[in-house]
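Hey,

Quick one before I head out. I ran the complex with PBG overnight. Inputs first:
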Amino acid sequence: MNDPFAIAVPPFQRFRRLRQTPALRRLVQETRLHPAEFILPLFVTHGFNVREEIGAMPGVYHLSVDRLPHAVEEAVSAGVTSVLLFGLPETKDPDASEAFAEDGIVQRAVRRIKGDFPDVVVITDVCLCAYTDHSHCGLLTEAGTIDNDTTLPVLARVALSHAEAGADIVAPSDMMDGRIAAIRATLDARGFAETSIMAYAAKFASAFYGPFREAAHSAPSHGDRRSHQMDPANGREALREIAADIAEGADMVMVKPAMPYLDVLAQARAAFDLPITAYQVSGEYAMLKLAAQGGLLDERRAMLEALTSIKRAGADSIITYAAVDAARWLAEEWGGALRALPTPATIAD
Ligand code: PBG
């Protein structure tokens, strides 16, 4: 022991032991993504043969009803079997009448998808913002503020029309108080006791919805959504919102956005046992996409890392515009893993 630098090293743990090969790393991996837990949002528009890319969201399209089957087919063949529908109506008015019209855009889309793919889970966004001429999520009082209680029957009517068209799950995103109770009561009274409700329960008033408002043409004409969406600063209140929606009859609850609210997601996971969905919203998607297009991030790795972190925090399912890409990447990864035994080249990776 003449080494002048020799020291008595205190005991330490060798975490690296289990990180040496891909197979070892897979063996101890705690969180794994699966395409079946992805929900793909689709924006449906009037017209025929429309497939227009949304400027703010590369890789996301406005689709006319006739182009939906192809998009759903693509998703299903990648293993993604749930979709969330948003509609762009032909006309907007103060009453949001296309939102509950029998031949409204979402109602037609639901019928088309359920007709062609009965096993695909069709979820519909229930809100008025894309259908009112002022783009607010509810009806307005004369003073121009949102009228919570007169909005409830309208939301219930929208949800009912989606259920009548064949939706499996209705997903109210408006953040009016009492809407889950109103929707549940209406669905039950009209013979749709088996239609589920996914509540956008902890939905924050977020800047990350920016690109979506271009996609859904739903930017409010005046004011903002802070009178009903949650203050980003409030984690405890989010748990109360979720508890209230569960008490009113929600079958699934959501935290939205996802990545800036992983703490809320983790707390919700610890507090509640029913299925929790997280929404990786348009701004989260656009940030990753544009950074990848600018050569700053590896798109595949960054997207899968983001989705993994959302799952690790406690999401059972994830609404993501990257659903189909992510599903394909996973298939490649796992297909490749099963085919190839680790070789020295892959160990070095
Ligand atoms: C409202 C709704 C919004 C989103 C989903 N449903 C927008 C909003 O509340 O302003 C945002 C989704 C996203 O940004 O990806 N109907």
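The beta strands are 38-45, 51-54, 57-64, 82-88, 121-126, 169-172, 196-203, 252-256, 276-280, 317-320.

Talk tomorrow,
K.
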